[in-house]
Amino acid sequence: MKRKGFQQVITLFSVMAIFSDFPDIEAVRVASSQPKQRAKDSQSDLTPSGSYWQQHVATPSSSTPFESPFYSATHGLVQTHPSLSAGHPRPVPLNSNSLGPGVPVAGATSGNPSLTAGSGYLNSRGSLPNSARYPVNKITGTVVEPNPKSPFRHLDFSTSATAELRRNPALSAPDECARACREGEPPRICYYHFTLEYYTVLGAACQVCTPNATNTVWSHCQCVLADGVERGILTANRMIPGPSIQVCENDKVVIDVENHMEGMEVTIHWHGIWQRGSQYYDGVPFVTQCPIQQGNTFRYQWTGNAGTHFWHAHTGLQKLDGLYGSVVVRQPPSRDPNSHLYDFDLTTHIMLISDWLHEDAAERYPGRLAVNTGQDPESMLINGKGQFRDPNTGFMTNTPLEIFTITPGRRYRFRMINAFASVCPAQVTIEGHGMTVIATDGEPVHPVDVNTIISFSGERYDFVITADQPVGAYWIQLRGLGECGIRRAQQLAILRYARGPYQPASAPPTYDVGIPQGVILNPLDAICDRKRQDAICVSNLKNAKKVDKGVLVERPDVKIFLPFRFFVYEPKTLFIPNTYNRFLVASDADHLVSLIDEVSYVSPPSPMLSQYNDIPEEYYCNGDNRPSDCGENCQCTHKIDIPLNAIVEVVLVDEVQQINISHPFHLHGTSFYVIGLGRSPDEHIKRMNLKHALDLDQRGMLERRYQKPSLKDTVAVPNNGYAVLRFRADNPGFWLFHCHFQYHIVIGMNLVFQIGTLNDLPPVPPNFPRCGNHLPPITSNSEW
Ligand SMILES: [Cu+2]
């Protein structure tokens, strides 16, 4: 059984290349058979963005996604793939593995390509993107060698993204690293270069090309379509989602982040990567590093723990404007207890879901009182794609939906990443197909069969889909729950059987008439203490690996109760002359700051990890050590010290008690066991708070299950409920623990666990950037 699984995974990437090709092949056929339709489109197309709006009320089914890659034809330019336009080549499956030197394969452009080892399985042309290593002169198309003697080399942004790859032969390019992982294979050093910029949805790049259907590690097209609504955005390498990092366990990952966002600083956090030994590269501003200044490049390097993770900006609200992407660390099948449950684990089967505004995220912070109040998203994206119906006009954009391709009879591992920023839970349901959940937050669980997965910002769920339905196309529906129900925000994608139709036979599900939910993972009612037919709680998931019994003991070394809530200002107490307290204007017009254990987190002026001695002791505080004059909106650097190797229990208690909102807490640096989750078992307690939680705990009524609890790094605390987490504090460092809602982070719903002492830490990397206040004594004019 094992061996069979192994072979299947070996052929994984070759087959993936085939599937990723099909949509393009079909699209060429279809597009060429409908010239009249395109001509008509071009007449009605007056503006670049106009072509993405249909002038009648449309459903997604009436805008065929396979035409969509050719909408740019209305601008007079069509990008076709050279190797495909010559005919309809059908790539041949591999017999060998997909490792190789990464050279273009002879015959790849002959119209009859046979893909062999390392033949660029990640792009649809059947060839390694040469642009990865050799910058191409944009005018002539020729490869340019940078002049090594030029003093301006470092200023040449057209080559900086690939300079390191050219210089250092020990590095592997992103598509060389996204491979099937084999036991005993030597690890690689995988190099990525992120260029961060201000950018635009539906900019002029969309006159040049349209992004292809594959989930991109490299993008060959700088057009960002999103949901077809024009807006300014932030991008890494002009893609949304940004570049995908896909490597094998033990690979070294190196990412150069080059910040060209004018007037903005940034850090990138690798969500789910524990950073053992690479604490300095966790990407939290003023905790692990100084933010990267505009014009600077910062090199992150780490080795990842296995699983489905993602990266995102951790500064300000930038994540919501487009700075996120997937991180997948694969393992040899022998290392995954669930590998026998699926045949394929394709790079194209990452499902990154995100919420999407039609304006800058900062437009909603601190928030408005009259128009577009609150922080709810207008829209959602699946792998950066989607359509949007304007509620005022009824017009619908006809940008392409994401298509996931499968083959009858096969079983596929999907890796879903919830990159939401808002408070809305995300519900994913697939027409006609159940999902077997096999991992969460990168950690394998005993498989459970569900029909709907509800997830929160920062969570990941891996599931298996079996292609056992009639060949066809099936809807994938993503719905925003909770507050997103007001706008009825949803998005669709398509699960398509290879060689079948592109368009589902059924009408597209709507927000109100959706795909039947069936069995739900992560029910919002959080009734988790009894067995039920209709739902499975996260705390019911069973760990598929050996658990650390030492963590699951009756008495932990450290027990921390962390109630969290909002403090609501009266306008007259907020807008006092010469005071400038931060606040968020919620949709109900309340002016809020967040409190965890009665403290609202503010960053210190320098990173704790790299410049500890530059931070005055009085900056720090916690629930037991609040400054005496701190007030109800107490703001300081919330830090809790934990001895190295202590067994820690954290009890999160929701005192917000806002119906519809469950706050997902994310821990950096390690995963935790979820041993309890729910609401008060005592019917007399209507509103959960710290006192009740302590009382329940004393009476032995706080649920704790020690039987194979699942490991996670992000867990939603049920509203008006609690969560009990356990971990071993064996990764020394300064680790942020916070609500993952973007707008709650900026009003202080964070704290830092300091694990161990400074002596337990690796040395600060040489020439690590420094930052801090500049407050010299005020001098008289003559003393400049
Ligand atoms: Cu929150």
Give an overview of the whole structure.
With 784 residues, the protein is mostly beta strands. It folds into two domains: 2-87 and 157-521, Cupredoxins -  blue copper proteins (Immunoglobulin-like, Sandwich), CATH 2.60.40.420; 551-760, Cupredoxins -  blue copper proteins (Immunoglobulin-like, Sandwich), CATH 2.60.40.420. It is built from ten helices and 38 strands. The strands form seven sheets. The protein has a seven-stranded mixed sheet. The chain is globular, with a radius of gyration of 26 Å. Residues 1-51 and 54-144 have low confidence and may be disordered. The protein binds copper (II) ion (CU).
- Helical stretch count? 10
Largest sheet properties? 7 strands, mixed
- The number of distinct structural domains comes to 2
| Structural class by secondary-structure content | mainly beta
The helix content, as a percent range, equals: 10-25%
Strand order of the largest sheet: 14-22-21-16-19-23-24
Q: Could you name the CATH class of the largest domain?
A: Mainly Beta
CATH architecture of the largest domain: Sandwich
Shape: globular
Hetero ligands: copper (II) ion
Radius of gyration: 26 Å
Mean pLDDT level: 83
Which percent band covers the strand fraction? 25-35%
* CATH superfamily (homologous) name of the largest domain: Cupredoxins -  blue copper proteins
User: Which spans have pLDDT < 50 for at least 5 consecutive residues?
Assistant: 1-51, 54-144
| Number of beta-strand segments | 38
The fold-level CATH name of the largest domain is Immunoglobulin-like
End-to-end Cα distance: 78 Å
